[in-house]
Amino acid sequence: MFAAFAFVLGLVLGSFLNVCIYRIPRGMSIVYPPSHCPSCGHRLSPLDNIPLLSYMLLRGKCRYCGASISPRYPLVELLTGLLVLSLYIKTGVGVDFLIYLPFIACLVALSFIDIDTGRLPDRITLPLTALGFILSLLPGGLSPFASLLGIISGLLTMYAVAVFGKALFKKEALGGGDVKLMMAVGSFLGAAGVLFALFAGSILGSFFGIWFLARKKGNVIPFGPFLSAGALVYLFLEKFVLSSLGI
Ligand SMILES: [Zn+2]
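YS: structure for the whole thing
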């Protein structure tokens, strides 16, 4: 019962994230104006805005002008629904659920914004870092000290990777956005989470990077989605990962 509620909550949250992913890089407000079709500008009714269902009922086309709607909208909704469901399965109803819900939401939004624009906006990463520290004051999750240590290790580790990468490849290997993203990851997951996310993100990134470079030459690969995926793997497998390392 609660599991179904968590999934639906995730779908609705994903629908809101779609708005954020489109509007935040464009410097638009995320609450005003109400949703409209990007092709014909027609305002969407609540019926056009039901996560997943509207897309299926409308067969991926705008009701008013017939323009195709990107399948990415229902994909982001489904992804967020599954992540929130997984979080509920891990934490149940409680403080931990409330702590990690905004973290997951921001990682999804940041990943898709990075794919679209190659940027990780400060408007999300910096407040998220602060939020991670504030939430560490609550019982559950990390201690405030561990959160602070996580922020510092995110900053220092990524700074070291950036300097080292620049010396090695003679060009910017990492953006400042990646550094701030890992500060946010550290504020929620601590120093071990930073190291794991960087390690897993690098493996995923090089695997997909080879495939990506084989198709499109010379393009910069956004690193944010891989770091975010590494952070989520750590969040969901934390106990397993730590125990397998003997910590
Ligand atoms: Zn339209």
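YS: worth flagging: Residues 21 and 28 are 11 Å apart (CA to CA).
IM: good catch. Also The chain has a mean pLDDT of 89.
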